[in-house]
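Lab meeting tomorrow. Please check the following:
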Amino acid sequence: MQLRIKYPFLLAAVAIILFASCSKTNKEGRYIPEQAIFALHLNGESLSSKLPWDEIKKNQLFKEAYEDSNTTALMKSVMDDPENTGIDVKTDIILFVARDSSVNYMAIEGTIKDEAKFKKFTTEAGKDKAVISEKNGLNFSDSKDMTAAWNKEKFVLVGDIKSNNSDRYRGLYDSAYTPAPEVKVDRITLAEKIFNLKEDKSLGKDEKFSELMSEKGDVHFWMNMEELSKVDGLSTAAMGPLSMLNTKKIYEGSRVTGTLTFENGKLNMDFRSYMGKEMSDLVKKYSGDKIDADMVKRIPSKNIAGLFVFNFKPEGLREYIKLLGVEGFANMGTGMLGFTLDDFIKANKGDIMLAVSDIAQDSSGRPNASFLFSASIGDKPSFNKLIEAANKFGKDKFNGSEGPAVFYNLNDNLFALGNKKQDVDAYIGKAGANSFDFMDKIAGTSGGAYINFQYIMKTFAKEASRDSLDQAMFDASLKMWDNMVAYSGGNESGASVQHLEINLVDKSTNSLKQLNNYFSELGAIKKKKDDRWKTDYSEEPALVDTTTAVPAK
């Protein structure tokens, strides 16, 4: 009998644990509408630990704002200590943009630490003193530009977003269109809706948003591309001739999420791209494999300024065009050039590379560099049709002597095009031999990019046209930025994953502190430039009397 009692209890406990672990929920999205266009989450505790407020106060731009005669006593008290707002700045801060009926609005959410301070701040912060009211257990502070709503635990700041984009864009092709009258925004009602939002109508129940919040980071962002496509100025109604594209299937279910982490010597960003079923199936079936590392090794220079390389399945292009509903237009356009869409697909094997190297200054001080484009060849007869079409279009620009010549060469496997014939010929003529440090990160992925900030800036480190203060700004950037690397991470949990990192010269200091110091240094230099400008141009030159005196008779 005892065993019969224990086992059902045990099974129920296990079921509860499994249900809780499988139902992905999050507290951060609890008061964000499920159809929010954009959301930003700031990890207050993490950001405060990486950049204490005392260090921010040393920033030159901060000091200038503090000393500005227009800065009120209230704002100075907030700048002395942000918690004088009554907000707990070491907890989560949420910002989101959403649409309610025909109104776009922005909201900021957070935790109340001192209700009296918060009330004082929201009442006196604006140009016009806010009106205080109470309704349904919530406190409101309503001014011309912003409405604050709060209880003892949390607050919401609401501001409306006015946009006439749809009127502007539609007016370009429809002169008879009459703009809709401006809608008055009831921000108090909006704030109430946020407080009373049901959990199943919030991002707190969204699995993709929960996945985002589970990633460790300092800043998270969420973009609902499907909802963004409906915003005034971007909707199909405002696209004019482009409305023939079947963009609904492209945007349907589309979400982009990102996590930013400030680490020692670098900024790390991880992105996830979600799509609707049709787009997701297409990407899954036709997504690229590994990049061709030999295409990169063939670059005839070690001085790489920038690189973009990726692999794709050309057959997927036809399916994507079909999904857009423009297959007929695509065939018509390629036919006018002398080949078919099938020729283009057969011609390409699926490897593309673009590299910029050997940046220098010519005799007149203008930048000069080697640009090299390469593609792998699938079916050579089909590829020759593309070359013939390009030659007709480019006439004598390709391998010619007139104008800004562009040179190309090819073998059975590779095509190369560039602005320097010796580089194009060297690329095609020999197997890959060069090695690059960044290849350790992008090799094995379906796409990667690299920018060498140090190499680019050092090329132009000294210019006669720069004055001492402009040179100081340039030197500050030279001491700050090293390089950028980005690459695809494949597919995880139904999402395409990408990673981007920006590496700094100083590898030992947290990147958030470095950014604060960098902008402080730029701010100090800008102040010197402004002071010099005031000294040089503050007084108008005296007017010179150019009239000729009439001689006395």
Remarks:
- The chain is about 40% helix and 25% strand.
- The first helix runs from residue 2 to 22.
